[in-house]
Amino acid sequence: MPPKRKKAGPPKEEIANESEEDSLAKRVHKDPNLWKDFIDAHFAADRLSTLTLPKTSRTTSKYKLPSLGDIVHFKGCDELETPIGKTIRPEDAGWSDRLTLNYRRLLEQSSDIDENANSEIFSLLSQYVDFTGNPSASSNYRLCYVGHLLNHVIKTRNLILQNKKKLEEIDEINLDDATLQSTRDQGFVRPCVLVLLPFRKDAFEVVNIMESLVFGGGEKPNVANRKRFKDEFGDTGYRVSGARLVEETFRDTMEGNVDDCFRMGVAISKKELKLYSPFSKSDIILCSPLGLRMILNGDQGDESQFISSIQIVVADKCDVLLQQNWEHVITIFKWLNKKPKQIEADIRRVRTLYLDGTAAHYCQTLLFGDYQHEQFTSLSLKHSLSHCGLVLHYPTVEGVLDKVNIPICQELHRINVKNAEESSDARFQYFKDKLLGKLEMHTMIFIPSRNVESFVQCHEYAPDNKISRARDLFYHGKKKLLLVTERFHFFKRFHLRGAKNILFYQLPNDPSFYANMINMCSSDGMRVKAILPFSQFDRLRLSNVFGKQMAAGILKSEKQIQAIVSE
Amino acid sequence: MSDSSDEEVLVKTAPTQPSKSRVKKKKEQNENVKNGAKNDEESDSGEDVGKEVEEDTKSFAELGVTEILVEACERLGWKEPSKIQRLSLPAALSGRDIIGLAETGSGKTGAFALPILQSLLEHPQKLFSLILTPTRELAFQIAKQFEDLGTRIGLLVAVIVGGVDMTTQAIALAKLPHIIVATPGRLVDHLENTKGFSLRALKFLVMDEADRILNMDFEVDLDKILKVIPRERRTYLFSATMTKKVQKLERASLRDPVRVEVNSRYKTVDTLVQQYIFVPQKYKESYLVYLLNELAGKTTGIDRPKLAIIFVATCLSVDTIARMLRQLGMAAVSLHGQMTQQKRLGALNAFTTGSRNILVCTDVASRGLDIPEVNYVLNYDVPGQAKDYVHRVGRTARAGRSGLAITFVTQYEVAEYQRIEAHIGKKLTDYPCVADDVMHLVERTNEAMKAAREELKEIEERKKRGKRTYDDSDTEEKAGGRFKKRLKNQNQKGGPKIKDKLAKR
């Protein structure tokens, strides 16, 4: 169940707590304070608006990092303080001693970690550049971003409390402009960090990391609502049957607490981590896209103001979010940092950047996914407007052909399209005219998104009995074709037997599914035929499957139909 | 109050207040303030002695306006001060409170804007001055003048009126403007609901059309506002007409005010011709159409279409008549209080730019609107109050132009009409018309009227069915029913809710 948020009464104890110095981060000891540089940077509106121009018109530079590989940096308003490639450590980024210490300890504790990758990601994040990439799990990027956003929140809170104290000492009548300007330290609402996660179990992990970063190993963690959190977000004990022949990754993804509808506020106050705090009193919003989408503007309410002052937004496991419902993510980003319907902060303390409507340029966008995808890139090209610039990560991809265990003949059909909008129509036309007629018995058709065709179909919305009947009919050759959607495979991972040929209507979003699907086919020793229509807009998907080099070759070739044969 | 109906000018100040020019020197001004204060202790604030001022033609600079503002005035084309400015500026610049009696269009805005800006230049401060006006249109008009005057000095002005989204206004307030021009209701709404918005450092309060602010439902709101602004402030009161209520308010919030009066007593300008037309109720619409045709036929030697304002008693009849006229091919727009702010501004804009030459409206538009080119004012319904009559006909014959005002009197409205005649102390002449010609129009008018009513009925029904199609067809776009509903909600919640925020103070 999503947490119920109540209109809270006057928070007596909180005021008492806030007036004291926050002990979580005692002092900031390094001068180059990246946090201050980011949030206090004042750029003229016309300079910021150049960031909304198409990315092709912006200065870019390419780097090759030892661990992460290729990245492209779109320059922001200013040069970065530390050039990309140089290492930034937590203490250089102005982290508090305690946070740094706990961060270090956690790094050491974690097994098989790629420390280089970790520090490369850290160096990027802590400079507040937008980042879209596919760091491997071994980089422990999650620890990186949780630490980064904790540092951000703690500093933001400390500044607000300091200024509050300062203002209390001055009589309202004597306030001068300079003081007023210097105490503008917040957004329209309190939440300044938004983390989008696919499942409750991910939120569970993130909160655990927060806890260890804030309290370290030694002392007793002081976490409000810990018990309730554990009940609602902890492991449900759900396991995929051990007898099933499925990949490890499927088990990793689908086991445990896979509820995909939740939203929770987290507040950080004196010596305490508060879970389930009402959004209006939270610093961090942890939610699934669905959970947040429900309260944005719809039957469940209209509370888009809570994401009107977000300074760091993280979308973790974008690959899973893509399989869930990418629409929600797009909707959320559309509402992000828009003019709110309601202002909760003291208007004299709202930062000018919010009043001027330039909030989007003071927001760091972080997208992490398992593979490259056109949706991730397009989202970040549209919404990553940080004045510090944007880094896109293009890791080398090897392709998944080596995972194919059976001999295949891959027939690649080029579809010529002028622009991306036409490509789905052109693809359908090509499928209907050129491919459909030629399909043989026992052909499985794989579709990345649900389509309306009347054959036997296995899609994610079909009830189980219908699916088993469909599988049966297909296996025994009573039906010629079997349609499978990608999400069906993602969520159910059924082994579909009886396919001798396969047609990929479009290449799968998740490259590993390419191998999975082909491996399901068997053609009694004959080569399985895989037909793949593609257009030039499928570049990312092609390179995910075939590897960067081969994909480039395929795209370059003039031939209408190419065949790639493997034994 | 003086009985003179002539264009006589009176300044009433404390007796020893020197009337000689108070020029530039701040030191001298301070002295004057001191003198004034001393003198005022002796004289009762209500008591004032009339004193004729010589017909002088001092420039702004000679009146004590600083150079930068004089330049601003020149940029706006204000060559020399208007009467009300000439009279009020010296007193205002010396730091006195003012009660000004003058019509809008007489340069009233300048009379309070200049001293405020001058004082602001001396002591720059955010949230410096509040100007209260009864109508939204007036608020935008005043704000525009402030902005024009203040372009060179980086002046920030915020307009806080109903019908506009609260958040946008809260953001405008968060920028801490120097000047707030507001209607009382919405301002109270912000004082109660917008965290961090306070007027505790306010230095100037101006009430424009002060009698109206008190006459309508604003009194409660006004009291709330007066409670949260400092007593230590300067207050200017401007109004075209003076009521007892104003005198009450004067005691409540003014300190030793100087009373400045530019010939009050319902003065109507010489260039204004006032007539009445006696019509049978049954053929009232036909007479209106006839009259509009007649007036349109008259040549004034100007190319642009002649502008006419038709005042009607109710919002519903505004809509009906505007539609009826449009049915007959006339370019009519409507303006009334039940329209959204957007549409009101849109209608007004269409009228001022001359793209529509007939404005059908309620008394919402009777005050403050300054459109110099209006040629005719038609009182389709006799105004309920004599004062309203003066305000209505004041919309024409502005800025030295000529104008014609015609009042429709039916057999049922004779008594009201006579009250008005008594009030303005004039017998009006009958507008000659040919009854036969009117009768020719009856059939067509009735048809148009019928069509207009049907249109409205249809809209009403569509609205009931919950579709957002309040189509006033004045302007091209359709206003959403949603917006209207919100407006209604806001209006409802405005009144009784005095929140703890105010109570705390």
TrEMBL record, chain A:
<dbReference type="Pfam" id="PF22916">
    <property type="entry name" value="UTP25_NTPase-like"/>
</dbReference>
<protein>
    <submittedName>
        <fullName>Digestive organ expansion factor homolog</fullName>
    </submittedName>
</protein>
<dbReference type="GO" id="GO:0032040">
    <property type="term" value="C:small-subunit processome"/>
</dbReference>
<dbReference type="Pfam" id="PF06862">
    <property type="entry name" value="Utp25_C"/>
</dbReference>
<dbReference type="InterPro" id="IPR010678">
    <property type="entry name" value="UTP25"/>
</dbReference>
<feature type="region of interest" description="Disordered">
    <location>
        <begin position="1"/>
        <end position="26"/>
    </location>
</feature>
<feature type="domain" description="UTP25 C-terminal">
    <location>
        <begin position="401"/>
        <end position="561"/>
    </location>
</feature>
<dbReference type="GO" id="GO:0034511">
    <property type="term" value="F:U3 snoRNA binding"/>
</dbReference>
<dbReference type="InterPro" id="IPR053940">
    <property type="entry name" value="UTP25_NTPase-like"/>
</dbReference>
<feature type="domain" description="UTP25 NTP hydrolase-like">
    <location>
        <begin position="136"/>
        <end position="390"/>
    </location>
</feature>
<dbReference type="InterPro" id="IPR053939">
    <property type="entry name" value="UTP25_C"/>
</dbReference>
<comment type="similarity">
    <text>Belongs to the UTP25 family.</text>
</comment>
<dbReference type="GO" id="GO:0000462">
    <property type="term" value="P:maturation of SSU-rRNA from tricistronic rRNA transcript (SSU-rRNA, 5.8S rRNA, LSU-rRNA)"/>
</dbReference>
<keyword id="KW-0539">Nucleus</keyword>
<dbReference type="GO" id="GO:0019843">
    <property type="term" value="F:rRNA binding"/>
</dbReference>
TrEMBL record, chain B:
<keyword id="KW-0347">Helicase</keyword>
<keyword id="KW-0378">Hydrolase</keyword>
<dbReference type="GO" id="GO:0043186">
    <property type="term" value="C:P granule"/>
</dbReference>
<dbReference type="GO" id="GO:0005829">
    <property type="term" value="C:cytosol"/>
</dbReference>
<keyword id="KW-0547">Nucleotide-binding</keyword>
<dbReference type="InterPro" id="IPR014001">
    <property type="entry name" value="Helicase_ATP-bd"/>
</dbReference>
<dbReference type="Pfam" id="PF00271">
    <property type="entry name" value="Helicase_C"/>
</dbReference>
<keyword id="KW-0539">Nucleus</keyword>
<dbReference type="GO" id="GO:0005524">
    <property type="term" value="F:ATP binding"/>
</dbReference>
<feature type="short sequence motif" description="Q motif">
    <location>
        <begin position="58"/>
        <end position="86"/>
    </location>
</feature>
<dbReference type="GO" id="GO:0005634">
    <property type="term" value="C:nucleus"/>
</dbReference>
<feature type="domain" description="DEAD-box RNA helicase Q">
    <location>
        <begin position="58"/>
        <end position="86"/>
    </location>
</feature>
<dbReference type="InterPro" id="IPR050079">
    <property type="entry name" value="DEAD_box_RNA_helicase"/>
</dbReference>
<feature type="compositionally biased region" description="Basic and acidic residues">
    <location>
        <begin position="459"/>
        <end position="480"/>
    </location>
</feature>
<dbReference type="GO" id="GO:0016787">
    <property type="term" value="F:hydrolase activity"/>
</dbReference>
<keyword id="KW-0694">RNA-binding</keyword>
<dbReference type="InterPro" id="IPR027417">
    <property type="entry name" value="P-loop_NTPase"/>
</dbReference>
<dbReference type="GO" id="GO:0003724">
    <property type="term" value="F:RNA helicase activity"/>
</dbReference>
<feature type="domain" description="Helicase ATP-binding">
    <location>
        <begin position="89"/>
        <end position="260"/>
    </location>
</feature>
<feature type="domain" description="Helicase C-terminal">
    <location>
        <begin position="283"/>
        <end position="439"/>
    </location>
</feature>
<dbReference type="InterPro" id="IPR000629">
    <property type="entry name" value="RNA-helicase_DEAD-box_CS"/>
</dbReference>
<dbReference type="InterPro" id="IPR001650">
    <property type="entry name" value="Helicase_C-like"/>
</dbReference>
